[in-house]
Amino acid sequence: MNAETNGTGGDPTAVTGGFEVDERERRRDPLLRMIGLARPRGGRFALGVLLGAAATGSGVALLGVAAWMLATAADHPSITALSVAVVATRALGVSKGVTRYLERLVTHDAAFRTLAEVRVRVYERLAGTEPFGRFRSGDLVSRLVNDTETTLDLLVRGLAPPLVSVVTGGATVLFLTSVYVPGGLLLAAGLLLAGLAVPLAAAALGTGPGRREAVARGRLSTTLVDTLQGAPDLVAYGAMERQVALVNEADTELTRVAARDAATLGLSAGANALITGLTVWGALFLGVLAVSDGSIGPTALAVLVLTTLAAFEIVAPLPAVAARLGAIRASGERLFGVLDTPAAVSAPARSGLEIDPEADTTVRVRNLRVRYGPGEPWALDGVDLEIPAGATVAVVGPSGAGKSTLASVLLRFRDPDGGRVEIGGTDVTDYPADEVRRVVSGVPQDPHVFASTLRENLRLARPGAEDDELWAALRRARLAEEVEAMPRGLDTQVGSHGLGLSGGMRQRLALARAVLAGPRVLVLDEPTAHLDPDTRDGVVADLLAAARGFSTLLITHDLTGLDRVDRIYVVREGRVLQSGTHEELTTEAGWFRSVSER
């Protein structure tokens, strides 16, 4: 597989969470793309628009019928005519409530289902791991929560109300035109001003603040997360006051932008109220003149004025949503910034990876080449290595040599741009990542320990594991004695990020979790990176002892304990410079011997 076909090397089509996004789609307005997410439920939204039009139309008709009934009652009509008007008023009152409820039910149901699908797409994309290196954690949380939820805001407030206004407003204008043409034309002008000109002005005024609001919200979230996660170090170095000042500054900026947004909404509401008042007064003035010259009767005048007043309910929601379009568009850009990130792992060609327990699990890496983008230097450039079944092989080298990139390829977190990675003769890139990870498991450089019990942290690897299986994994990782000494044993709470455990215990817990998963190949990525020198040798010895029987790859820049491995590969600048046993490399001139002698 090469860089031009795996989504990372310039292909105009990228696979994102199982969805293909071409370059033309990426260039579309984020608002249109967000609305496009609701396409599978277009029928439901159309039904919601019809129900919304029925609800709004019932409200306008209710006031018009009430005006007709009151004006007609002065002429002492027949009881039958009044009864019809009373029944119509009650029916419209009931239908307004019922259709409004159904409209909210249908529209919100469709919007929440769409939001659920968007969240799944975001989660699937994040499962590719690549965005974690591109966004800061607080900003990523803001994109995942706030920016994703703006899809709901757009679909509920920005999609249905404008369509409802067009349908109901057009019907109302046609009705009043049939009653009195100048009155209908005046209402059309008023509705165009309140429902089009004011929202356009609000949208223009809200574009800048809306974009700044999305950025300010992301900045506040990032600063808060950094403050909470780094609190111990900030206190230790006396930097907490300065960090809190940054949080206050971010909060002040968000408050200022929100106040500007509120001012825009206030101006829009005031402009709408002014246009409504002027239109109603204009309708009253024209109606009085028409009654004076006999063009219409007093009853028609009442219907004209009160229907004009009620008609502005149709366009009342539009300025508010228009003022939010800037923020929604900015949130959409941030949302699609995650969804459009090229996938690090391509869609598999097939599924059903199964390796027989008795089968050969030799790992062969042939001419492996990986880079992180077009034109960037090769992180791995023609790497060849082999891990015989049941053997332990170490890959050593300085930081930035490409060692962790090798681990990412083996664990299917990244596709190679060239070459092959085989397990027992099977190319791992042909199969889904989850299937490969059932065969290849590992202990990352900084294993995550969840704020739960030891039992639940272990069961991540195998949810149905019994206690005796958990203890067996702990014994293999040489952690059983420490856990037995704890008052609550497996039910011991480990604290946030495993702070209740030492660094060595966290590594052993991660190894026990990996062993419990029952893989055939183990990848240990920098297992002693955060340990003090006195602890490293013991942890390496325990890890290698626990890994006995697996095909094991130990990735490290520390040469501690490498006399226990079967073969060592020295990698530098993405290439294998030396390989051999510990004894061979200590006698051979090169990087390994020079570092060993320090």
UniProtKB/TrEMBL annotation:
Short name of one Pfam family: ABC_tran
Keyword ATP-binding: yes
Residue segments, region Disordered: 1-21
Location in or out of the cell: Cell membrane
Keyword Lipoprotein: no
Protein's membrane topology: Multi-pass membrane protein
Ranges of residues in domain ABC transmembrane type-1: 46-327
Database matches in InterPro entries: AAA+_ATPase, ABC1_TM_dom, ABC1_TM_sf, ABC_CydC/D, ABC_transporter-like_ATP-bd, ABC_transporter-like_CS, P-loop_NTPase, Type_1_exporter
Transmembrane portions of the chain: 45-71, 77-94, 163-181, 187-207, 265-289, 301-325
UniProt GO molecular function: ATP binding
Keywords: ATP-binding, Membrane, Nucleotide-binding, Transmembrane, Transmembrane helix
Protein name stated in the entry: ATP-binding cassette subfamily C protein CydC
